[in-house]
Structures
1.
Amino acid sequence: MPELQRFDAAQGLDWAAIWRAFDDDGGLIVEGFIEPQLLARLQSEFAPLIASHEPGSTTEGLWTEFHGEQTKRITGLPKHSPAWIELLCDPRYQSMGDRYLGAEDYWLNTGQLICIGPGESSQLLHRDELNWPHAMREKEITVTAIFALTEFTEANGATQIAPGSNHWEGTLPPVPPETLCRATMPAGAALLYSGKVIHGGGANVTNDQWRVGLHAGFCAGWLRAEENFQLTVPIDVARSLPDRARYLLGFRSYHPEFGGRLGLVDYDDAARLLD
Ligand SMILES: O=C(O)CCC(=O)C(=O)O
């Protein structure tokens, strides 16, 4: 069975080896990514949201299955959790976005809790870049971290992933079962992965365990992000955030290296509204 490469933050991180694993396999695990105090704050700030949220999708059709009937998905997190803002601005997390999408050239695509509950079946396997099928190309257009806020086990729904499928041809080629592995990891670890790698949430066959992940990806600045933060983060909360969080959440305009400017207000950068 294939396996993802594992790195341990406590031993010091060899970033060249990490990016090699990212490029070769399309994903890797960094254990100890979130230090214990920050992990405890994330867990306690998210606990009331998780407790009050019902499982299942609010959208019908394919999405009911994709989102999972026994899964809680919770978005709009920035206004609830200063600890999440701290993790969002982590320079190691930033280095993944800067490397694959270009410094200051991307948005937070979504930052959502995915809590896979007992009895959930495996999610449809997919590539994250399929959010933008017309923009798929050789270079990355989206890269993601799933931060484990509880332990991820084979039984409770650890992500399924096909290492190396980032190199497979076709939009969504078939996935032989023997090419899949599970991103098992302790709480505090991060799965970093390419928008091209085929993956999906795992089945939860336990009777009583919730697998809680914070699914947080970046997408290229010229793309529309999956989650609309400008409508869920009140402007006064946005004003209180560090600059990096503001811009990742889209409270600014986009200035491509060559060419025009996008998302303007009065032909100026939208960030002015926060001044
Ligand atoms: O929760 C997971 O392990 C993966 C979820 C995922 O890939 C998605 O919902 O797009």
2.
Amino acid sequence: MKPFFVFRGDDLLLIDNEAARLPEVGEVDDLKPFFLDSRCPDREGFHWAEVSPEAEAPPGMAFVPRRSLWGRLDERLFALSGKVFHLMDWHRTNRYCGRCGSPLSDHPDEKALLCGKCGHVLFPVIAPAVIVAVEREGKLLLGRSPHFPPGRYSVLAGFVETGESLEMTIAREIREEVGIEVCDFTYFGSQPWPFPRSLMLGFRARWKSGDIAIDGREIVDARWFAPEEMPDFPPSFSISRRLIDDFLQRHRNGRGLP
Ligand SMILES: [Zn+2]
């Protein structure tokens, strides 16, 4: 089976929305007049297209937000749809050379775009971000972003800025968002996060000093939660959920930070 990833904006086309099945090559011919760009296959063997905003899903199909496919597509296909979206988004946002303004084309040897006029080479942009589970005396720091569904809390995250080590980003983000100092960072794991082009790097950390003082902009509430008083938190698949599950499991087993 060769899935055909058809994107309209940030939404993905499904055939049979109930079963969350992707269409296959040959099943989306009705949409071809609406293709803005397509690669079939692209240099990595994926079939994808972006359609214009006025394109309607063919009968029996639907365009659905990618985030809603979390837990509906199997983990491998969800990750793959994110990777293909990242590549599609990279193409649609980099049609011209940023140095001389000429059209870009595929590089013959690299997974990159090339300017035939000035030789500028452009690789896909990946934006690293840290996500941090901070603990204090058996409690976990969780915060609420204004974009979260009502009642939802999660571990804190932020983008790496130019010139920063990951350790510097962790210290700055936690300080800026909730006003506390942290220490004893340990690496936990990572996850590509194609919304639209991040790589999340997960860490555990320990509270060092300070009381919670939210910034009121990126974080509208933050508290220390004991394992038995957890609020609503993100669904599975995400590294934020894996960090929270790790905290809960260690405390169920009577173990603190490693
Ligand atoms: Zn150029």
